Amino acid sequence: MKIDIVSVFPEYFDVLGLSLFGKAQAKGLVEVAAHNLRDWTHDVHHSVDDTPVGGGAGMVMKPVVWSECLDELLGLDARDISEIITDDAAAAAADGEPVIDDTGDVAAAPRTVLIFPNPSAPLFTQQDATELSHADRLVFGCGRYEGYDARIPEYYRAQGVDVREYSIGDYVLNGGEVAVSVMLEAITRLLPGFMGNAESIVTESYTGENALLEHRQYTKPATWRGIGVPDVLLSGDHGKVDRFRRDESLAKTDRLRPDLIERLDCKALDKADRKT
Ligand code: SAM
Could you give the number of structural domains in the chain? Predict the structure, then answer.
């Protein structure tokens, strides 16, 4: 997977040489380039932001700088989209709907995905991470200040680019760098060969068709500071251990994340689950 990250602080991504991500790069599983957005500026101050149209506090990232950068990374020519799409299609593009291309066909899903972190976008989930782990190339654009001009994602959607905007949670960070790091890790750890033990991914929280929270985990010693592990885990009976963990998982999810229980497909539950 090829990954491009655009930021005014590309040094944030120096840490990607560490740990499993560093190993994945060494193995050739992922190829990462962090770009400085200021390299696409032409003024003496290398400015990437300007005052908000309509007034208000703070600064907004300029579309002219982002577009020079993204056109180059995505290999696109600059276009005036009012010449190529209708107002309806522009509205659809702004809403993230598929765009009708010049031939009248729905644009084929590209294997490159352009991703902008944004606190006012839909929440990034494990399902998104799984889907994006199948892309060939991800291009991330890190916002700063009051965010980026809203026409940037709109423009690239209208060009047929698969553009996503995601929030990583209901809070506001200073910039997109940390949010990109979160998404990047969630996506790339799902790449075949990335994790030492691929099986551990299959049983994790939020994973699979019936995504639940994972059961509690324990290691040795069996008793630590007077607290023992549940007896069944020491029984050696794998059937009972699996049942115990599944029950734990269902009960914990029901307690902490009832929204996940409501989304369960009842057909995928077994008889014992229904009693839980
Ligand atoms: N004015 C924006 C608002 O109120 O929604 C906040 C802008 S924030 C200070 C600057 C940038 O940080 C955003 O453009 C985005 O890239 C990133 N960011 C901040 N919080 C985020 C979150 N929860 N999820 C994803 N990105 C976030």
Answer: 2
ipTM over 0.90 threshold: yes
pLDDT score at 32: 97
Q: Are 239 and 155 in a shared domain? A: no
| Mutation choice for ligand 1 from 60, 116, 123, 172, CB with most ligand atoms inside 8 A | 172
In a domain, 197, yes or no: no
Domain that holds residue 252: 205-275
Residues 111/157, Cβ–Cβ less than 8 Å: no
DSSP code at position 95: T
The CA distance from 113 to 170, in Å, is 23
pLDDT in tens, 229-267: 999 999 999 999 999 999 999 999 999 999 999 998 887
Let me know whether 52 and 176 are in one domain: yes
- The count of other CB atoms within 10 Å of the CB of residue 80 is 7
So what's the pLDDT on residue 218? 98
